[in-house]
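Feature request, filed as a ticket because there's no other form

It would be nice if the structure record came with a short human-readable summary line next to the tokens. Right now we just get the raw output. Example of a typical job, pasted below so the devs can see what we mean:
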Amino acid sequence: MKYHFYSVVLAGLLLASCDIASFREEQMVPPATDTISAYFADFKTKTYLLNDAGDLSWSAGDEISLFFNSGSQGGTKYSTELGGETVEFVGTDPAEGAASGVYYGIYPYDSSSSVSSGVITTVIPDTQIAEENTFADRMLVTVGKSTDKSIGFYHICGGIRFSVSKSGYTSVVFKSNNGERISGAVSVTFGSDGKPSAQVTSPGYDSITLNCKEGFEPGKFYYICMAPVVLSKGFSMTFSGSSTAKVSHNTYIEIDRAVFGSINTADLQSSIDRIKSGKMLATNGTANCYIVSSAGDYKFPAVMGNSSSYLGQMASAELMWETDNTASPTAKNSIISSVSCSSSAVFFSTPDQLKAGNALIVAKDASGSVIWSWHIWVVPGFNPDSTPSRFMDRNLGALSSTTGDARANGLFYQWGRKDPFAGFAGNSVGSATSAQTGTQMGSVSVSATSGDLDFAIAHPNMLITSDSDWLSPDNRNNNLWADKKTIYDPCPPGWRVPAGTENQGLPAFTVDQSNKGASTTQNGVRLWFPSAGYINPSSARATMIANVGFYWSCTAETLTSVTMYVDTYNQYRVNTYYGHIARASALSVRCIKE
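Raw output as currently delivered:
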């Protein structure tokens, strides 16, 4: 009876009002489902203290928070039924038909998360769950944004992965020794490169508890995810369960975004004592050159140039040479005070009083042979990324960008090689080349056995002489440098050797004969190109200082490569496309943003 009664009443209402019927139909129709594509833009988590890296993938059942422009209370929940590197998440479109805007995604779904004015608020848990050899679900917080429905997710966390020496531990507390906040609510912003930066907001926590109900198993690795932070006085780890232990690292260490440093047998103080401290220089990518602008302890992954290929046979690392770009040898270890290595990273320190200069660090195998090398470019206060110009404001290896300053000359490079050679220490005819402390630059005649890449890598101080290419005919390679950065490119992270057409794109130059160079302005930045001379490809002698400046491009031609030519000798001109230069010549390099 009751059911029939309501049916009659409903029928009467439907007959009485079409408007009411339409309204009720709209209320009863479920909202249409929407699909977005999600992938990991940081496709690997970096473990720089060990020679490995792990791929990330979504898991079936993963849930994300999705916002359009702004929102609160977790936004819209999207979920996936499949796993994989790129998956489809299904939910209700928060855009509601809006014409334009930005989607923001947060993993894992967080009912407390919000977005306002492009800033994401979410949480890095202070209590986490362990899962052997991977991240437990919902522990690794990632975010992304996009103007369409394909969103790349980036890590906001860094952290450590560790193993233990014995069983019996069911929990570990990781704590900063100086109170730095590593977990809790975080505020996330996006840089111009699209990558996020997270900062713990008040009150935050200075510790994270990682629980493993079944107990940590020796030989397995476990992850602790935390906010990127400098731990000025290190950290402690307190293990509890049927076994207990407490260890402490009491000096500076930096937790970088997307980087998870590995600690074998972290419950042993002897293992913690082996940790080498240092600020990571490769947060924006790996390279053959790293810039140091302030005194301190540094590290970078022992990989080949602009790649993730580790030097598996590295047995030691040492300083080969250093120079302050003057004609007098600098005091030993005045630029770089110490160098060491782990199985997959190189560590070095500067003196407390930073001295401008250049240095070359080499990695060696067990036999003492050089297997790779890196240029360390030390310039106090220098940040090339701060300039709006696409071109760097100085030559590669230069200690100044000032018009007429001899320190603006920089270093010289043979085409396609990653390692520098000494430039001139003055800006007038007859000036001496800059002096090196340590292994001096030599020269060797090219041959079928010596004119190859392996020889060049093993002898970074050797300038290979030839009247054309430093590579022998059987080994010639037009792709050592390219407009897509290669592992032999000599520029620092985020920069590369420009293409010939990019040199041509520079605005008109003004030749300054009195100061021996030429200048142009790009995006409001005045760029000074000195007539820095070059190294003769046949004699290996530095020559033509104050007369000409040649600047490599990455563009290759038959047996030559395109360069830019600054003439303050007779015609007082700049030619931005000057092709006939033997590749064995050692010329200046002016890097361009990638």
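Something like this underneath would help us a lot:
The chain is about 5% helix and 35% strand.
Helices lie at 2-16, 18-28, 269-273, 453-458, 500-504.
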